[in-house]
Protein 1
Amino acid sequence: MQQTTNKILVTGGAGYIGSHTVVALVEQGFDVVVLDNFSNSQPESISRIEQITGVKLDVVNADVRDEIALQRVFELHQFDAVIHFAGLKAVGESVDQPLRYYHNNVQGALQLLRVMGDGNCKKIVFSSSATVYGDPSSVPITESFALNATNPYGHSKLMVETLLRDISSSDADWQVSILRYFNPVSAHSSGLIGEDPNGIPNNLMPYISQVAVGRLACLSIYGDDYDTVDGTGVRDYIHVADLASAHIKALQALAPGHGCQAYNIGTGRGYSVLEMVKAFEAASGQTIKYKIAPRRIGDIASCYADTSKSARELGWTAEHDLNGMMQDLWHWQSNNPNGYS
Ligand code: NAD
Ligand code: UD1
């Protein structure tokens, strides 16, 4: 018999990827509870989700590491599954504050899994990252490539992946999908929700869009001497709306016997930094001032996904093209030059 998964706990649902996924879940008729401590998001994102969907959200302001709060949520609701986004994600910060990262990301997952197990909710979709492949031996990257993180953030993701594999080996009732995101970009087509990083963005696309609205003066392109199409770094950028739909497909694919599976979530196509700058300029009509700077420590030349496993097993592929990504990003950034504030 086909299992149905209806009531979903979304940890980190106020954040960038979480908010887009909550919109998709609500639109697909799922009953959603968001748990977030708002350490890296704004309550305004919740109001915007409600504006888009027309549905009042059930939001719990709590930390996933707070056992009592988590137990209370599981007493109040009988969840069919959890999507676990809550975590810290800045690579550089994780190098400076490793304990904070391990505590938040690893202890948070441990706490959540314990309470889920006690509440007999054993289906989870977990946010991992292409960073777990480190510097891959070749591209495109398949899920069976060696796992080799190079910083505390990446290690914390690998630790949680290991935890998930171990619990699913110990108890066949666990149904686990690990989604390894490549480079999430862009925003909801409404222009109401999008990425709103704290401080100066580390990632390419929010940096470019903040140059476009005049918040930042000039993009530094980190290296133009890589072995790539034009010397600049190549990545697999994926529209956040495609990422959101991957979570729905991942939930729907959870079934008895699933065990623990990892999936690459990307487009399967890489673009260089200069190609991204040009595509943004074409979609926005803005000129992006840039200069070539030295390589950023820890960066790799090329990273893009082999997405055949997610296509085959989840029935999911990315649908938005580069121009669509850029248009939606510009719609969000030009309507919200200062993000949610
Ligand atoms: P985000 O920071 O926008 O969202 C994370 C949300 O989790 C925020 O709302 C934050 O307040 C909340 N949170 C953090 N720690 C918490 C805790 N202990 N308890 C409760 N809430 C907590 O990040 P995002 O870009 O939406 O990323 C979501 C997930 O995807 C993260 O786990 C991240 O590591 C992973 N990921 C992100 C990217 C990316 O480029 N954005 C790439 C790969 C993987
Ligand atoms: C970063 C994270 C990685 C995470 C991924 C997706 C680091 C070291 N890695 O990877 O863990 O999984 O985001 O969110 O932070 N670039 C510039 N100028 C900039 C910013 C970036 O030239 O101001 C270049 C980079 O050198 C790279 C490309 O743009 O070639 C993409 O960079 P970024 O958006 O930071 O993503 P990743 O480095 O792939």
Protein 2
Amino acid sequence: MAKELSDRLSLQEGDITKLAVDAIVNAANTSLLGGGGVDGAIHRAAGRELLAECETLGGCPTGEAKITKGYKLPAKHVIHTVGPVWNGGKRNEEELLASCYRNSLALAQKHGQKSIAFPAISTGAYRFPMDRAARIALTEINAFLDGNKEFEKVVLVCFGQDAYQSYLDAWKNLSKS
Ligand code: ADP
């Protein structure tokens, strides 16, 4: 299932490793040396060369982002960002998640990329509530697209109906405000 939210932003259900965009975003951990969830899926699909490049990067702080090549992925690059672990919301989690989206988009822009796909960062093992995460993702992506008219496409990849519905609800609420 796919749905256009605006001419440059769409929702798509399924596996982010299948998308042929300029960059897919990885919800990594601070080591950048692989993990479970989407991180494991991306490393499996990209092959061992991705891990070898990640080993040269020296990790990544929460909220920031680093770029590698895509190797065997259909995507040209991977932007690795580290989302916050949800701890009830009083440890700056919302701002850190917003930084993940801002920094990933800025890095894509800096490298001349025009299309990017995001998973729902922090909403798996890191337990960030999906509805809040969806609102933050859409707010940051909208602001970026408003300021960067030449950027062509942002895809929000939903791994399951829960994410899909949360993005749709967040989009309706944002459009009202
Ligand atoms: P985090 O540690 O940041 O929470 P996870 O990988 O555990 O990262 O989960 C982040 C989100 O990615 C979750 O919503 C999960 O359902 C989703 N996800 C897992 N595998 C994939 C995949 N192959 N493609 C897209 N999204 C995925």
